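Quick log. Single chain, no ligands specified.
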Amino acid sequence: MGTPSSGAVGLVLARPARLLGTEPFFMEFIAGIEERLTPHDLSLLLHVVPAHDAEITAYRRWASGGLVDAVLLVNRTVVDPRPAVLREIGLPTVVVGEPAPELAAPAVRTDDAGPIEQVLAHLLALGHTRIARITGPAGLLHTAARTTALVDGCRAAGLVPTIVEGDYSEEAGAKLTAALLNRQEPPTAILYDNDVMAVAGLTTAKELGVAVPGELSLVAWDDSTLCRLATPALTTMSVDVHQFGVSVAESVLELIGGGPVTPRWSPTAVLVPRDSSAAAH
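-> predicted structure:
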């Protein structure tokens, strides 16, 4: 007889709980996962914790109690203790992002470099030479991949981008945008690593009397209702986040089923030009 099913798939998010309610990405992602799991009588067990040590504690508790059939490992970091722990405790895992060499687990990968090349080409074609980016946490692998792609692309164009680290919050978007715009040579274009920081940055620009897009172009990563309802509407790197969740669920269903797991990629981010980006002056 096989191991009885717990009826659950685990997802631990190590992030401030307050961000979960304001950032649309994970809500759409979770909706996509649950859409595929529900017909198979599986539910998603979501646990929000402040840091990786608490995340690892949750994995050990779930494994010892047989509380989940598998877990989804998200937000891979440059220095990441979690894959080794998951291998040690033998918890079946689907990696969301870059595969972990120390953990023989299937992955649903994401291309972070290609979309950066796309948005940089858009800004260069508009004549922007002073380009800044407000990132998510620098320790995340996808943040590092986007940074490398932007630095390399700007170097090829004879430019050096300004890169400052945020945390995806409204406060970071506002504070860092203000700091950039108060520089002696402020950027003419800012790329944000999520929608919440971008909308906050737009508000800050208005408060400082900087016209968007007349004096400053803004681009958000992740499209959402926030971006579409902003005035002006924000140019975005749009990802089908719901389909991303569906793809992750399909991989975990194959893993639980005991068969081979199809290598998958998340939907590619696509540039959606709107009114917040225009020619540099």
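The two ends are 71 Å apart (CA to CA).
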